[in-house]
Amino acid sequence: MKNAAYKADRNQSQLVAVDMQTKLSRVMSSDIDGVIKNCAILLQSAALLEIPTIFTEQYPKGLGLTVPELSPYLAGKKAVEKTAFSCCAEPAFNRQLLGDHTQVILVGMEAHICVLQTALDLLAQGKTVFVLEDAVISRNPENKRNALNRMREAGVIISNIESLVFEWLGVAEGDAFKKISQLVR
Hints:
Layout: E1 13-18, H1 22-25, H2 32-48, E2 53-58, H3 60-63, E3 80-82, H4 91-96, E4 103-109, H5 111-124, E5 128-137, H6 141-154, E6 157-159, H7 161-169, H8 174-184
Parallel strand pairs: 1-2, 1-4, 2-3, 4-5, 5-6
């Protein structure tokens, strides 16, 4: 195992929040509040550490805009609107992917559709892909489990928000460490 490839590096990371939308969130499993909370923690941590962030919205006319709980952490950013399931099928998404950032961290919904297809396409582009299991969701928990298994077998690194943000930090010191420690409590 190449240890460095399996550890998140904030200088190589880019965060992608996939389709965290209002109407879609209403039909998710009962874990949706926890997933939204975890996505908020991750977005705040990324902002503190100056990690570039992209967020997408699948057919917003029908599925609504991004959930209001995440809006404060996306201020100044414009959603990549899409109709394709894989974010990578959208040219605007690909233009925002930073070539020098080799790691892409994926969160959002649905794990077995848009997150899965995006993860597989990013792997095909040579990216190291992390999916945070406590920040992705599907309507059916079995579909989420299946998607996580498929992604793991394909080479996606399955992790969680707390592990990832502390990998980003690297050391237990400084203002960012103090603020992020408060967020994950």
